[in-house]
């Protein structure tokens, strides 16, 4: 089955298919890894030189660009390094095509390199070439600082412009002839047909903040304030931008969020302000009830403000310490993550004074109720389940999740630092979806 691999440049600097294993070889810093077809990495060697570019030769040896020494180095299966060739320029990248030919790229020149160390110039451009890749039909592809994507004949060096006026961060072409282009600023992969028409798109996300279950799909927000929807078992699709919030909640089927001193709803095309609090404020958590009641946590002023279905203020609760996440239980009682006191407070609806409900070992952030009535809490060091008597039990220690939510199929959380959505599997949170970040 044809696959497109995407490097996350915050972790992987270069990669290449490894036909022997059906997986990849990859560079992370000075370390060389083999990644098998199941996605499991194995450290092969830590390099004594600054590497730029990696490929696999027809004989199964790993080829690496030795940038400052202007060498193409060969790492054999026994882990031994030898210099294959020395070029007249700094080596930026090494690739091999499906015929076993070896190519090394400097800033402006592509060299054809032979195993005996000899080389010849295939192509020189006046434009800076960012990267070099090999398409499924065995053509070389490169993209330049002039916003052009070139196809290069590996035998003659003849060039054809494929995508003028675009500035991608990665390009490849699949067996059906679709040109896949990565745009890191947009966290998107877009496929174009031979006529240059967009025919497919995969959205990525970076550093997710909060996630909610709508009853039929997930909706979540990343750190660039982009909104996404994602069905269970599906892929993320961006549905909007500029939704400035950290915490989300569904209110009568409409997504709401809070930021600064305002509450916003998503209209389907943009964020609309529907309510605000008075005075200095920094709104974090947001929670709703079926009757349309909406509460927000003001982390700055250590208060919770509640609005009715018409967005009029009906209550303002104090007695809190830097509140963050909020959640209503099935009885309509509001629970508050007191991040400044490592505790969960509860308002029973009859008084404006909170009742201590539970204590946790580190600062609580996000809250969500399970259908069983247990409260889930993401803290700064663990994910905790709290029963109806306020007794906490850790689901997983040292798991640094932000938001947490539930659906009929389980417990889900977002790991901001890894751009990953995780699902709890009874003992730990495993990756469920990842974000194509810095593609």
Summary?
This protein is 0% helix and 52% strand. With 439 residues, the protein is mostly beta strands.
Which descriptors apply to this entry?
single chain, 439 residues, mainly beta, four-stranded antiparallel β-sheet, 44 strands, 0% helix
Question: Number of helix segments?
Answer: 0
Query: Numbering strands along the chain, what is their spatial order in the largest sheet?
Result: 1-2-3-4
Mean pLDDT: 91
SS strand fraction: over 45%
**C-alpha Rg (nearest Å):** 26 Å
Oligomer: single chain
Description:
The chain contains no helices and 44 strands. It is mainly beta and about 450 residues long. Strand 2 and strand 3 form a beta hairpin. The radius of gyration is 26 Å and the shape is elongated. The protein starts with 13 loop residues before the first strand and ends in a 5-residue tail after the last strand.
Layout of strands and helices, then pairs:
Layout: E1 14-18, E2 23-28, E3 31-35, E4 41-46, E5 51-56, E6 62-66, E7 71-75, E8 81-86, E9 93-96, E10 102-105, E11 109-113, E12 119-124, E13 129-134, E14 140-144, E15 149-152, E16 159-161, E17 170-173, E18 179-183, E19 188-192, E20 198-203, E21 208-213, E22 218-222, E23 227-230, E24 237-240, E25 247-251, E26 254-259, E27 262-266, E28 271-276, E29 283-288, E30 294-298, E31 303-307, E32 313-317, E33 323-328, E34 334-338, E35 343-347, E36 355-359, E37 364-369, E38 375-379, E39 382-386, E40 392-397, E41 404-407, E42 410-415, E43 420-424, E44 429-434
Antiparallel strand pairs: 1-2, 2-3, 3-4, 5-6, 6-7, 7-8, 9-10, 10-11, 11-12, 13-14, 14-15, 15-16, 17-18, 18-19, 19-20, 21-22, 22-23, 23-24, 25-26, 26-27, 27-28, 29-30, 30-31, 31-32, 33-34, 34-35, 35-36, 37-38, 38-39, 39-40, 41-42, 42-43, 43-44
């Amino acid at each position: 089955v044809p696959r497109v691999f995407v490097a996350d440049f915050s972790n992987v600097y270069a990669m290449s298919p490894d036909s022997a294993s059906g997986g990849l070889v990859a560079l992370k810093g000075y370390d060389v890894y083999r990644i098998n077809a199941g996605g499991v990495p194995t450290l092969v060697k830590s390099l004594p030189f600054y590497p730029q570019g990696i490929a696999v030769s027809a004989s199964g040896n790993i080829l690496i660009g030795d940038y400052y020494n202007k060498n193409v180095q060969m790492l054999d299966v026994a882990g031994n390094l030898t210099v294959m060739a020395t070029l007249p320029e700094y080596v930026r990248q090494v690739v091999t095509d499906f015929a076993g030919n070896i190519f090394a790229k400097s800033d402006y020149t592509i060299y054809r390199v032979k195993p005996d160390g000899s080389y010849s110039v295939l192509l020189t451009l006046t434009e800076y070439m960012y990267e070099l890749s090999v398409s499924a039909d065995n053509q070389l592809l490169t993209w330049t600082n002039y916003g052009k994507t070139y196809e290069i004949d590996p035998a003659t060096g003849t060039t054809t412009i494929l995508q003028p006026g675009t500035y991608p961060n990665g390009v490849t072409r699949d067996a059906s002839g679709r040109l896949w282009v990565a745009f890191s600023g947009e966290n998107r992969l877009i496929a174009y047909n031979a006529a240059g028409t967009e025919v497919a798109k995969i959205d990525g996300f970076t550093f997710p903040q909060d996630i909610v279950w709508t009853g039929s799909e997930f909706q979540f927000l990343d750190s660039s304030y982009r909104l996404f929807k994602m069905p269970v078992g599906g892929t993320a699709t961006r549905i909007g931008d500029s939704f400035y919030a950290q915490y989300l909640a569904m209110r009568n089927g409409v997504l709401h969020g809070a930021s600064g001193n305002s509450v916003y709803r998503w209209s389907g095309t943009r964020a609309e302000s529907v309510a605000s609090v008075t005075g200095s404020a920094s709104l974090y958590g947001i929670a709703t009830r079926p009757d349309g009641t909406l509460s927000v946590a003001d982390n700055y002023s250590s208060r919770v403000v509640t609005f009715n279905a018409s967005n009029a203020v009906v209550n303002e609760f104090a007695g809190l310490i830097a509140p963050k996440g909020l959640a209503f239980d099935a009885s309509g009682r509001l629970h508050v993550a007191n991040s400044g006191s490592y505790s969960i407070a509860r308002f029973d609806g009859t008084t404006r004074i909170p009742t201590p409900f539970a204590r946790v070992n580190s600062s609580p952030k996000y809250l969500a109720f399970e259908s069983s009535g247990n409260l889930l809490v993401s803290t700064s060091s663990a994910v905790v389940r709290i029963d109806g008597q306020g007794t906490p039990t850790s689901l997983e220690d040292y798991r640094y999740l932000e938001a947490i939510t539930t659906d009929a199929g389980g417990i889900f959380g977002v790991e901001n630092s890894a751009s990953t959505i995780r699902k709890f599997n009874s003992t730990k949170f495993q990756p469920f979806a990842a974000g194509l970040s810095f593609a």
